[in-house]
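On clarity, I found the account of how folds are encoded harder to follow than it need be. What matters is that the chain and its backbone geometry are given together, residue for residue. I therefore recommend that a typical entry be quoted early in the introduction. An entry of this sort, consisting of the sequence and the corresponding backbone structure tokens, reads as follows:
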Amino acid sequence: MRLWYRVEDGTRLGALLWESGPGWRMISSALLGGGIGVRSWVLNAQVVAGYSRMDPAEHLSCLAPAGDGVGMMTAASVERYARAADGGAEVVATVGLRVPTWAAAPEGSADPELAPEVGTINLMARLPVAMTDAALVNAVMTMTEAKTQALLEAGFPCTGTASDALCLAVRAAGEPEIFGGPRSTWGARLARATHAAVLRGAEAWRPRDFR
């Protein structure tokens, strides 16, 4: 993974790029390259505060390498990413929490702002094993549960933000794991790594950005 910078509208913005090369399958909720499929890179691009473009996927594709990949965006400072590993599971988190949100809010309640520029938690993760589609979905649930656990432990009364995204990469070849839950071998490792990365990111973000 590498960190690089660009200038947009007079603002210096960072981006994290992992070019995995061939042999990886990914599951993602991202606007660009989301779903399940073979992918060769993951991009987490910082955008300006007040981001209002209506073509975020096209914007991301202009910043990304050639080929199929996954693109996410956030206004959080990506250079302050938090990284954690556990038994071969690796997770990188960029954490923005200006508008912490409960997933199940009463109907009609409005958050003050709902866009990536107000703070987003983006997760990039990889496992050195193959997984079935069902196990991938299970693993996404595990990552989300671990993220929420970390946020609560860090003192944020929320399940995340309304614009959170994630990407999990696994090997395309090999005997696939059929479980990804928090008590499976690889799900447990993924949960611990996700929890550690989000907890570090949330604790580091609070004194500078919470208001």
